[in-house]
């Protein structure tokens, strides 16, 4: 297994409800990136709401997700980034402008797209994004991953009863180690982010602490940056109590920052 290059994904069955979503609409496209060990299920309701407003939407399923955690352990950040990078390229074949959104690790992927492809990303919307955790246990991951394949999962941190992001109940450590490398890369290039930014942050988040918020909000070069607190949602806020507020605020933000007003 390589630490530095894309890895071959096992052929595993797709878990029902984790399929990608693609809906064609108007000239503004929205790319929605789900989180680490999660699935498109966390983003599909948002995508459908956006599609209802006439936007073209894409929710890719990141490699190694929506199958098994063992499958995910054969993938790395280049695989996940490659998937959203390809989705962005495809969106530009049918859209004039594209907004990228991301939940948790999906927010890190969104930031990297903005850094690497500044002319292709017109605006960013992040929900509890992760680029660093203040967790000393992460220091052991580079070595621990060879002795222990997975640790207890981080999924379904949702306040709303019955909501389900259809993620894994374990955290695959080879994959986690790769995510840590991506975080470092994105942090080093934070100043390259110039796009308008809308940032939703839960007051109570049992997965991602406030370290990422300060790093992102103080590090980007965006002239438009809005931080919106969420008082009644946990980490997976896109399918939690304030989901509709996220949808509505996002639609207004897209209208203000990514649509043509000629």
Describe this structure in words.
This protein is an alpha/beta fold. The chain is 32% helix and 16% strand. The protein has a 7-stranded mixed sheet, with helices on both faces. The protein has a two-stranded antiparallel sheet with strand order 6-7. Helix 3 (77-91) packs across helix 4 and helix 4 crosses helix 6. The chain is globular, with a radius of gyration of 17 Å. 48% of the residues are buried. Residues 1-10 have low confidence and may be disordered.
User: Nearest-angstrom radius of gyration?
Assistant: 17 Å
How far apart the termini lie comes to: 52 Å
Q: How many beta-strand segments?
A: 9
User: Major beta sheet, specifics?
Assistant: 7 strands, mixed
Task: Give the spatial strand order of the biggest sheet.
Answer: 1-3-2-4-5-8-9
What would you call the shape? globular
> What is the succession of H and E elements?
EEHEHHEHEHEEHEHEH
Indicate the mean pLDDT.
Answer: 93
Number of helices: 8
Helix proportion range? 25-40%
Strand content: 15-25%
Low-confidence stretches: 1-10
Structural class: alpha/beta
């Amino acid at each position: 297994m390589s630490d530095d290059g894309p890895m071959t994904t096992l052929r595993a069955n797709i878990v029902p409800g984790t399929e990608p979503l693609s809906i064609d609409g108007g000239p503004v496209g929205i790319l929605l990136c789900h989180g680490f060990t999660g699935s498109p299920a966390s983003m599909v309701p948002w995508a459908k709401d956006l599609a209802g407003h006439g936007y073209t939407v894409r929710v890719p399923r990141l490699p190694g997700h929506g199958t098994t955690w063992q499958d995910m352990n054969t993938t790395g950040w280049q695989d996940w980034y490659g998937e959203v990078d390809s989705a962005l390229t495809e969106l530009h074949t049918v859209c004039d402008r594209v907004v990228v959104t991301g939940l948790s690790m999906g927010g890190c992927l969104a930031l990297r797209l903005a850094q690497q492809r500044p002319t292709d990303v017109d605006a960013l919307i992040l929900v509890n994004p992760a680029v660093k955790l203040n967790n000393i246990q992460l220091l052991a991951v580079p070595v621990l991953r060879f002795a222990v394949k997975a640790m207890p999962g981080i999924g379904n941190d949702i306040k709303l009863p019955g909501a389900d992001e259809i993620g894994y109940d374990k955290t695959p450590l080879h994959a986690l180690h790769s995510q840590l490398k991506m975080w470092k890369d994105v942090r080093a290039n934070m100043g390259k982010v110039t796009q308008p930014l809308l940032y939703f942050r839960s007051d109570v988040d049992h997965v991602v602490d406030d370290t990422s918020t300060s790093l992102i909000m103080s590090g980007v070069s965006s002239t438009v940056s809005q931080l919106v607190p969420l008082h009644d949602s946990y980490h997976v806020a896109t399918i939690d109590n304030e989901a509709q507020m996220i949808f509505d605020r996002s639609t207004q933000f897209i209208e203000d920052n990514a649509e043509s007003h000629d």
